[in-house]
């Protein structure tokens, strides 16, 4: 509780709005899942069209993120958040009244573009408001909002669908989003010195060895997480005889563990070396993933899902505050541009994960594919960490040479 009482009023207000915005974003993302059978029955789409529907979100987010992040550094966080929320409301209303796959895909694409505006801007707002020593905890809290929205979207959507019709989940979500737009417009204030941000040279920023390490870690974690969605349900059904409800609960356990560990890892990143924490998270993820297919009972599968979710949350949470710290060192204040990089690799993972999972399970049984992925995650994680340490050694040697000269 003292963590929140020590905040200033602008900090508490900003954190509250970031939590609401990220929660809404992921709530809308997963809201569609329980309504897919209805659209499949009424619109009779092909499997390819359904794949396009779900991938269009990530593709749109990947394309739009590099544009919106830098813009928020120039025009301000509040304006960009309002633009993103308006886009989310519009896409949700379009979902409600879509009567063709073309309109549904368009709605999903607009939703991804809107997420590209809200995600990096919301995280940049936290970096604006909080000093480096507090960012780890607040960024972890933001990730918890993301996981909570993901966790609740499907059951809320299913419940509203059952008590009314397929439009009700989207109409309710649109009303909630519009309410948030009004609250942001009336009560969210920006720090007056935020507009002093300088343009960040993206080329040099991406070549920074620390940024390369973070980008690689984010990609490994996101790909690992997203490839499980198309591969595990059928595996659990065949091996453990799970029902669709049980599969949903297993993924809910993973999401819950992700959300619970994220603030803890964020707080630790303010006290310990964040790069070692990210590497520890990747090691844990690689170790725990094979237990998903080695599980012989439902309880063992649930424990394995929780451990994998915690591994991903522990890996990703320190990346957010650390990116902000790199921007602080450069003195640009261009947090929007920095967090757009996080969003880009998040989007790449969302696209590549299911694709990689499908390819691997065509070549190998799931029981072999998951350990292969775990070994690859471990290998690339070690390689990234060795490269990071080598780059630090080179920089220290150069400084010593300059002093001797």
UniProtKB/TrEMBL annotation:
Domain Major facilitator superfamily (MFS) profile stretches: 14-393
Highest taxon of the lineage: Bacteria
InterPro entries: MFS, MFS_dom, MFS_trans_sf, MFS_Vesicular_Transporter, Tet-R_TetA/multi-R_MdtG-like
Membrane found in the keyword field: yes
Membrane topology: Multi-pass membrane protein
Ranges in a coiled coil: none
Localisation per UniProt entry: Cell membrane
Keyword flag Transmembrane: yes
Listed Pfam families: MFS_1
Stored Gene3D superfamilies: MFS general substrate transporter like domains
Assigned GO CC terms: plasma membrane
GO molecular-function terms, A-Z: transmembrane transporter activity
Alphabetic keyword roster: Membrane, Transmembrane, Transmembrane helix, Transport
Record-annotated membrane-spanning stretches: 12-36, 48-67, 79-97, 109-130, 137-161, 167-188, 209-227, 247-265, 277-295, 301-327, 339-360, 366-388
The protein, known as: Arabinose ABC transporter permease
């Amino acid at each position: 509780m003292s963590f929140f009482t020590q905040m200033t009023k602008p900090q508490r207000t900003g954190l509250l709005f970031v939590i609401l915005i990220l929660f809404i974003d992921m709530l809308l993302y997963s809201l569609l899942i329980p309504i897919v059978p209805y659209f499949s029955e009424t619109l009779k789409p092909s499997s390819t069209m359904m794949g396009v529907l779900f991938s269009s979100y990530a593709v749109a987010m990947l394309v739009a993120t590099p544009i919106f992040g830098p813009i928020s550094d120039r025009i301000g966080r509040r304006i960009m958040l309002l633009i993103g929320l308006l886009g989310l409301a519009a896409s949700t209303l379009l979902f409600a009244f879509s009567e063709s796959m073309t309109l549904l895909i368009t709605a999903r694409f607009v939703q991804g573009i809107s997420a590209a505006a809200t995600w990096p801007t919301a995280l940049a707002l936290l970096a604006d408001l909080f000093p480096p020593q507090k960012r780890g905890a607040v960024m972890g809290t933001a990730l918890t909002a993301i996981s909570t929205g993901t966790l609740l979207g499907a059951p809320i959507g299913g419940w509203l669908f059952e008590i009314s019709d397929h439009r009700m989940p989207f109409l309710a979500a649109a009303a909630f989003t519009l309410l948030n737009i009004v609250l942001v417009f009336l009560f969210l204030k920006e720090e007056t010195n935020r507009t002093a941000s300088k343009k960040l040279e993206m080329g040099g920023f991406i070549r920074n060895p620390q940024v390369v390490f973070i980008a690689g870690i984010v990609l490994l974690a996101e790909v690992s997480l997203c490839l499980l969605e198309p591969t595990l349900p059928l595996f659990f059904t065949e091996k453990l005889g799970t029902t669709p409800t049980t599969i949903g609960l297993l993924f809910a356990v993973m999401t819950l563990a992700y959300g619970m560990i994220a603030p803890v890892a964020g707080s630790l990143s303010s006290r310990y070396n964040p790069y070692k924490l990210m590497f520890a998270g990747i090691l844990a993820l690689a170790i725990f993933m094979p237990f998903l297919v080695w599980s012989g009972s439902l309880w063992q599968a649930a424990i394995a899902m929780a451990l994998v979710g915690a591994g991903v949350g522990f890996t990703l949470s320190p990346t957010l505050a650390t990116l902000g710290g790199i921007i602080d060192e450069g003195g640009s204040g261009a947090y929007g541009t920095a967090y757009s990089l996080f969003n880009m690799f998040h989007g790449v993972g969302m696209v590549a994960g299911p694709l990689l999972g499908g390819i691997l399970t065509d070549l190998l049984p799931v029981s072999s594919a998951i350990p292969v992925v775990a070994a690859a995650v471990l290998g690339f994680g070690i390689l990234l960490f060795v490269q990071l340490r080598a780059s630090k050694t080179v920089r220290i040697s150069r400084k010593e040479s300059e002093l001797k000269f």
